[in-house]
From TrEMBL:
<dbReference type="GO" id="GO:0051603">
    <property type="term" value="P:proteolysis involved in protein catabolic process"/>
</dbReference>
<dbReference type="InterPro" id="IPR013201">
    <property type="entry name" value="Prot_inhib_I29"/>
</dbReference>
<dbReference type="Pfam" id="PF08246">
    <property type="entry name" value="Inhibitor_I29"/>
</dbReference>
<dbReference type="InterPro" id="IPR039417">
    <property type="entry name" value="Peptidase_C1A_papain-like"/>
</dbReference>
<dbReference type="GO" id="GO:0005764">
    <property type="term" value="C:lysosome"/>
</dbReference>
<keyword id="KW-1015">Disulfide bond</keyword>
<feature type="domain" description="Cathepsin propeptide inhibitor">
    <location>
        <begin position="76"/>
        <end position="133"/>
    </location>
</feature>
<dbReference type="GO" id="GO:0005615">
    <property type="term" value="C:extracellular space"/>
</dbReference>
<dbReference type="Pfam" id="PF00112">
    <property type="entry name" value="Peptidase_C1"/>
</dbReference>
<dbReference type="GO" id="GO:0004197">
    <property type="term" value="F:cysteine-type endopeptidase activity"/>
</dbReference>
<feature type="compositionally biased region" description="Polar residues">
    <location>
        <begin position="1"/>
        <end position="12"/>
    </location>
</feature>
<comment type="similarity">
    <text>Belongs to the peptidase C1 family.</text>
</comment>
<dbReference type="InterPro" id="IPR000169">
    <property type="entry name" value="Pept_cys_AS"/>
</dbReference>
<feature type="domain" description="Peptidase C1A papain C-terminal">
    <location>
        <begin position="176"/>
        <end position="406"/>
    </location>
</feature>
<dbReference type="InterPro" id="IPR038765">
    <property type="entry name" value="Papain-like_cys_pep_sf"/>
</dbReference>
<feature type="region of interest" description="Disordered">
    <location>
        <begin position="1"/>
        <end position="22"/>
    </location>
</feature>
<dbReference type="InterPro" id="IPR013128">
    <property type="entry name" value="Peptidase_C1A"/>
</dbReference>
Amino acid sequence: MQRPPCTTTTSIHIRPSKRPAMPLSSSPSLALALLALVTLTGVLPLASSSRGHGVAATTNGVPPLEKHELLMLERFHGWMAEHGRSYATAEEKLRRFEIYRRNVEFIEAANRDGRLTYTLGENAFTDLTHEEFLATHTNRAPRPEEEDEEPEEETVITTRAGHVSEGPYLPAVDKVPDRVNWTAEGKVTEVKNQRHCGSCWAFAAVAVIESAYAIAKRVQPPVLSEQELIDCDSYDSGCSSGLSWSAMKWVKKHGGIALDSQYPYKQRKDACQEKKRLPHAVSVRDFEFVKKKSEEELMKAVARRPVAVGFDSNDNCFRHYTHGVYNSMCIKNGELVGPACSGNNLTHDMAIVGYVGKGNDKGKYWIAKNSWGKGWGQKGYVWLKKDVADPEGLCGIVATRPSYPIV
């Protein structure tokens, strides 16, 4: 079986480049001196006039910036403050500024183009190149063991009433509503942030367990522990890789999962702390799969509870997503290209927590809860185009079998 996840917010620790950074102006050394001055003193040289003459005299021998450069540098400092970013050297700060500027120019050009069905914007990744993003936020290595493992008992949603333990709160599968939003129903916990750990598989698994419990018990969802899975789940590989369904299998086998307050998140894999696991807050009696290559079956499943799915998140536009219906198309060199993802490279896991099936001016879409924090996307969520021509779904969300727990 193809190895899905995980796109991650792995630790961003990038060594300064040995190659000279792209200059702010025609003189790299001049630009470096300028940025060093700004870094050390906080003083911004005045902008040049439209005639090319400095509005004021030079500062410490550094000529004034052009107005657009000054505005971009001020914008960069604002972005740094917002995201708590700092750099070890002036050289690295200059390199990050140039990357930030290129990304901002890409974002603004794509938005001006007007052909995308969604909007791009700045976020915590804006000072990374796409290659750095893929290297530090995407785990492409397959899990070394049990790559083709299947669950001991596979069941697919086929019955009218569903599992008897789920109760009358859930609709019968032949009465699927046009739209569902479990977040609006209060059955989804706050968006979390996996940060410096390749643990999207754990976050997606925990998200659907939290919601399944809240729906079945008709209560507010408990905030459960991803760290317990990262440390203790022997089926998966901590911050390196994992599968949502095998995480559910582990929870089932080991009696349940603790609250996050008992076993808090550390953004790294440590030795399993057995004492923190007890008492179990939620137990999982079983886990099930939705039929793959069927968005219709996924809709039936999501009408009953959130479902964990694999996703190809390698598109450069996806990492800049802010709002709208993402359809896997992207602007490259002024051309609309796509799809920029497929079901052959599932690098991430998310929880599908709802959908809009019809009766909306934005068309049909899935509502996916991500694990990159509230500063990404629509306060941590993304709308994914629904009912696409590809039988594997947009970016492979039904390429493999989506999964969910029975609590």
